């Protein structure tokens, strides 16, 4: 899974760079560039969510399998879908909700660092809880980025770095799977922040008074 994710991360960066290069060549409008980068990042995260979701679901259907495996899939897929719908329809509500949930997940990483033995026992019995939780929150955050790009960017960076960094302080057990699931959300978040930076630069130019330079001097 880790090697596949690294390959996907490299492919994501190449795709984003290619898309932006094409847009920059054909469209000088900075607002169009920023929007293209946002949609490229969202598409990368959506594709990764599908692939990772299929991978996780395959394991659940193999072990424990049967009805219990289906229940496990529903237990993370339904909340993820509900949060994604909320992010699209009510971004004002979704932003604080995802912030709180991200903070709780990072706190779980801190707890893992303090009591890694208990967490290892829990995940051995119930599966890679932290890795699945990152995926469950990352996809709705990516959807939120279509409406509130800077907020989503910081959320995704926190999801990509926080759980891995704090968990690694306690034990490397499970960190490989957690890193594999976190790298694409991190890349998506960084792309969102770049797009937000481009948009802020555009806004700074637009709000200048007509007939004046950026320093306020008259033309």
List the helices and strands and how they pair.
Elements: H1 2-26, H2 30-89, H3 91-114, H4 116-126, H5 129-144, H6 149-170, H7 175-206
Helix pairs in contact: 1-2, 1-7, 2-3, 2-5, 2-7, 3-4, 3-5, 3-6, 5-6, 5-7, 6-7
Q: What report would you give on this structure?
A:
- The protein has 219 residues and is mainly alpha-helical.
- It has 7 helices and no strands.
- The protein has helices at 2-26, 30-89, 91-114, 116-126, 129-144, 149-170, 175-206.
- The longest helix has 60 residues, at 30-89.
Taken in chain order, the helices and strands follow as HHHHHHH
What portion of the residues fall into strands of 2 or more residues?
Answer: under 5%
Give the overall silhouette: globular
Helix share, percent: over 70%
The total count of helices amounts to 7
As a whole number of angstroms, the C-alpha radius of gyration is 20 Å
Count of DSSP strands? 0
Features:
219 residues, mainly alpha, 7 helices, disordered C terminus
Summarize the entry for a quick read.
The protein has helices at residues 2-26, 30-89, 91-114, 116-126, 129-144, 149-170, 175-206.
């Amino acid at each position: 899974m880790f090697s596949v994710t690294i390959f996907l991360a490299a492919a994501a960066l190449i795709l984003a760079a290619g898309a932006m290069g094409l847009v920059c060549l054909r469209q000088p409008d900075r607002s169009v560039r920023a929007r293209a980068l946002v949609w490229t990042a969202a598409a990368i995260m959506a594709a990764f969510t599908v692939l990772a979701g299929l991978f996780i679901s395959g394991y659940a259907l193999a072990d424990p399998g049967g009805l219990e495996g289906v229940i496990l899939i529903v237990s993370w897929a339904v909340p993820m879908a509900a949060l994604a719908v909320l992010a699209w329809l009510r971004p004002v509500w979704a932003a604080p909700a995802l912030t709180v949930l991200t903070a709780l997940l990072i706190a779980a990483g801190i707890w893992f660092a303090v009591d890694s033995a208990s967490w290892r026992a829990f995940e051995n019995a119930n599966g890679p809880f932290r890795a699945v939780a990152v995926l469950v929150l990352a996809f709705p955050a990516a959807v939120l980025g279509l409406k509130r790009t800077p907020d989503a960017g910081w959320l995704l960076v926190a999801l990509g770095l926080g759980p891995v960094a704090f968990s690694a302080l306690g034990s490397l057990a499970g960190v490989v799977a957690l890193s594999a699931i976190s790298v694409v959300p991190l890349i998506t978040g960084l792309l969102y922040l770049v797009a937000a930076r481009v948009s802020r630069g555009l806004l700074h130019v637009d709000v200048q008074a007509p007939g004046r330079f950026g320093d306020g001097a008259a033309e």
